[in-house]
Design goal:
The protein is built from ten helices and no strands. The protein has about 220 residues and is mostly helical. Helix 5 packs antiparallel against helix 10. The longest helix is centred in the middle third of the chain and has 26 residues. It is elongated.
Amino acid sequence: MTKTTTGPGRPRRKDPDAVRQALIAAARDHFAQGSFKTVSVREIARAAGVNQAMVNYYFGDKRGLYEAMLQETIGPLIRTLEEAEARGEVARLEDLIPRHAATLAANPWLPNLIIREVLYGESEFRNLFIEKFASRVAGALRRAIDGGRDKGELRDDLDPKFGTLILFSLTIYPFVARPIVERAMGIPIDDAFAGRWSEQILQLLAPPKPPPEDEDP
């Protein structure tokens, strides 16, 4: 009887997508706690319940897994923006800001990872993150600000570049400073936070309301 063999490095599980997703989930858990240099492929594979050769099979190496983890997290937001622009549409901030805040709320590990690996660390992922993720989101935000000003939905004195910086700062800070926000300010970062915070940001950027007209006595 001839045995059926799998090629070197091929996954033995019946559901390859389940293997891939298990590796990404394990990578997310480990990279949320440790740096790229300190987390090993062996640790990630063990947590995912697969052989470490599966990392090479699906992602090429640890760097490929790291990038796939970020793509899995931020990619849907970027694709939504770029697909809208491919149709000749400009994303509106009232749609974009809640999506951005919801992405961070669903992945509270992400802001701290960015600070550790991209801002303060000497990680090789600084350029990767800036070019593949941050610059694309920033470009969409600038175009959304331009469109909002043209339509009168945003302050006409809002500079698109500084407006983009404002949005990055306002959306990311609460999740980075969660203990301060919750304990010192008394604002719970719960399931409703992303929507409520997005409304406050949009109110800050909205054009000032005209003063009420004097009524005749």
